[in-house]
Amino acid sequence: MKTLLTLFVFIFLDKGHSTETHDQVLSITPTTQEHVDVLKNVSTQYKTALWQPVSPQYIKQDAQVHLFVPTNSSKTVKDLLQKHTIAHEVLLANTNELIEMQTRINNTDPRSSSTFYERYHSLEDIYEWINRTLQDNPGTVKVILIGSSYEKRPLYVLKLSLNDRPDKKAMWIDCGIHAREWISPAFCLWFVKNSLSFYKQNQDITKILDNMDVYILPVLNPDGYKYTWTMDRMWRKNRSVSKTSACIGVDLNRNFDANWCTEGASSEPCTEIYCGAFPESESESQAVADFLRSHKDSVQIYLSIHSYSQMLLFPYSCSLNEVENHRELLEMAQEAAQNIRRYYRNTYKYGSGAKTIYLAPGGSDDWAYNLGIKYSFTFELQDRGQYGFLLPPSHISRACNEALTAVKTIALKVIEKTKAKKISP
């Protein structure tokens, strides 16, 4: 009896202990400069992952910080917060459960499953989906190999072309530039499915695809994305090896030639916003840049899909200066945000990147704008931080429909403007 009682107490205590030490996400709002300094120290000296903001340099007074704290750092971090009387709340108590929910394998044949697009998919699944989409739509879908990643994984772009009209313009959409933002590749798949399923059924989709070809890169950062499925769900960068440091990876969205490596990026390889050795030093960013350079006369719209924070952003992020057509881009983003609000009762902020968030040089949207693609946007999808990078699969449908609403709004506006220019003498 005594042995059983001892065993029961041990199990009870062990269970209680384990609930205290799950990986968690904390929400912390520093109210003094001392708090800011402590948080900067915590996020660099301990094994944690900053979700918001992306880098310690952006931590400031009275601005919310979202910090992923793994089990083995939990006690140390919370003790430090308590010691300096920094209040915090637990946003996510057990991230492991959410990750398990996201990666749960469903073996249903995707061709007969309506839920295929309401799940997250491994890189291998996405490559298989690309092959199947090509096989099922040989007349309207082409697959273009534009290059390969650092670890030699292919970078496949799908071209949707529904007719052979001469002098057709095009739209570019890339997803998954940051590895941990899983809702982003999910959107690229969602967009392709909607385009192919609703052409000639939905008026907006039909008008867009009658007037434009669409290039879609579902996973711009395949090495990083693969790594988030197998090793570290919070990984952001690519997986290239530095010649000057033991730290791995470059932030591909700081690696383009737009005020490269100025304020808002870092030349330190161990940071999350490392800009790389030089502009387009990474094979992934170079492949995208080369493709867009060779198609700049036809590509009118550039869209890069990210998460999280619910924002519709446009250039510049690399400078506080306003672009030439700032007002035009602002009106488009505003209308897209209003449509999301109207149909989905959800709020998206909008504006130029630098003024809406912070300076972020070397971004793909600024580079595309400077190339001559004057309708250039970055979308930050759901949510505002309740789940952050661990958005549950049950939220995929709504998040993607919101983004699709914004894409359609902007594309239809660009088509209108293009037709107006052709008509005017």
TrEMBL record:
PROSITE patterns: CARBOXYPEPT_ZN_1, CARBOXYPEPT_ZN_2, PEPTIDASE_M14. GO terms for biological process: fibrinolysis; proteolysis. Its cofactor is Zn(2+). One of its GO terms (molecular function) is zinc ion binding. It holds the Pfam family Peptidase_M14. CDD domains: M14_CPB2. Residues 1-18 form the signal peptide. Keywords: Carboxypeptidase, Disulfide bond, Hydrolase, Metal-binding, Metalloprotease, Protease, Signal, Zinc. Residues 119-414 form the Peptidase M14 domain. InterPro entries: CARBOXYPEPT_ZN_1, CARBOXYPEPT_ZN_2, CPB2, M14A-like_propep, M14A_act_pep, Peptidase_M14. The active site is at 380 (proton donor/acceptor). One of its GO terms (cellular component) is extracellular space. PANTHER family: CARBOXYPEPTIDASE B2 (PTHR11705:SF17), PROTEASE FAMILY M14 CARBOXYPEPTIDASE A,B (PTHR11705). Belongs to the peptidase M14 family. This is Peptidase M14 domain-containing protein.
